[in-house]
Amino acid sequence: MENYNSNTILLFLKYMFQYLLKKIELLAPFKRRKLNINKSNNLYSQPTITLITLILFYILPASNLTAQVSCGDISDYTTVCIGSPSTFSAATTGTAATTTNPGNDYGCLSSSPNPAWFYFKASSGGSLNIIQTNSNLVDVDGAIWGPFDSITDMTSQCGAFGAPLACDYASAPGFNFSITATTGKYYALLVTNYSGTATEISLTDGGSTASTDCRADIVTSKTVDNSTPEVGDTITWTLTAENKGISDASGLVITDQLPAGLTYTGHSGGTYNPATGEWTIGALAANSSVSLNISSTVSPAPSGTTLTNQITNVTVTGGEANSFPDDLSEQITITDITPPTLTINPVATDNIINAVEDNSPVTISGTTDA
Questions:
Q1: Residue 268, Cβ neighbours under 10 Å: how many?
Q2: Helix (H, G, I), strand (E, B) or coil at 326
Q3: Residue 367: exposed, middle, or buried by beta-carbon count in 10 A (0-12, 13-18, 19+)?
Q4: Which residues are CB-neighbours of 318 under 8 A, at least 6 positions away?
């Protein structure tokens, strides 16, 4: 006989209860997807529900229940392209979406365990037919919302998503969604792994007239290690390029020429031409990033002088999706001044001679431009 640890047994019990609950929902006499809770139905009696609650939320290890992903946090989304050969791992743990973001209208989803959020941008409008399959043919459900004007619009409306454009809660391993997509708009897709079994999600195109943006998406940012340097200080600018798109980028070049008032002293982490300001990256794989450090010294200038270092151009072969905002500039403020000039007032020769003869001090006065 094989040996199983307690976590494995408890996890099995969790998914067995989920499976039974879903089967019960399918048998509800008046509505296929709604729970028919009444006192005469022993399957939904209060002791039964209490027992299930205790097992799922108090007995099972906390590590299976605490992970949260939110439709309001763009870092919890995965960018997808309908019809791309890429696959995406379904979540096997996590707090239900209905618990994390209870204000959304989840349509047919009576439950939403092990959620994963995805988004895509429509590059052309029309009918969009999405076919979801998964490698282990397990029970996976989903819903889709939109259109949204931007990434910010999508995440800011989280918690108040209206009725989904399409929804699936069947026990079958796949689902088919058909929506009308609008050019340039964004759509949020929730996939819930009802089975809890590890599986790879594929999103294929079912003969759409619309298309989704499958290009690279370069997000560029810049930081400086000292925003209030003194004259003569060496400061380091760090440029980062991250590809948040579906496809690998090629021919990537970022232009960042130092402004007047800074003297280039060196760089590390990439190929940079200080004369033109071009950082030549070339290829950048999807979901990867690179950084460049540029060192410079601060030239003499009056206190309070501000200098702005600006990325002026980002080019990619074939263009990019531009779904995310960039941080293209950083500013420094010089905090000290150019050494002052001292002007000494003339001293009469007789005063100096008398002072020497009498062994007495000589008063010297002057002014500075400080």
A1: 11
A2: coil
A3: exposed
A4: 215, 216, 250, 251
In 3-state terms, what secondary structure has residue 352?
Answer: helix
**DSSP, res 62:** G
Residue 241 makes CB contacts below 8 A (sequence gap 6+) with: 218, 219, 220, 252, 254, 281, 284, 289, 290, 291, 314
Report pTM.
Answer: 0.69
pLDDT one-digit tens code per residue, 103-112: 999 999 999 9
Specify whether the CB–CB gap between 193 and 113 falls below 8 A.
yes
Pairing verdict, β 88-89 and 200-205:
antiparallel
The helix/strand count (H/E) of the chain reads as 5, 22
- Find the angle CA(105)-CA(111)-CA(112) to the nearest 5 degrees: 80
**What is the Cβ-side half-sphere exposure of residue 273, based on CA atoms within 13 angstroms?**
8
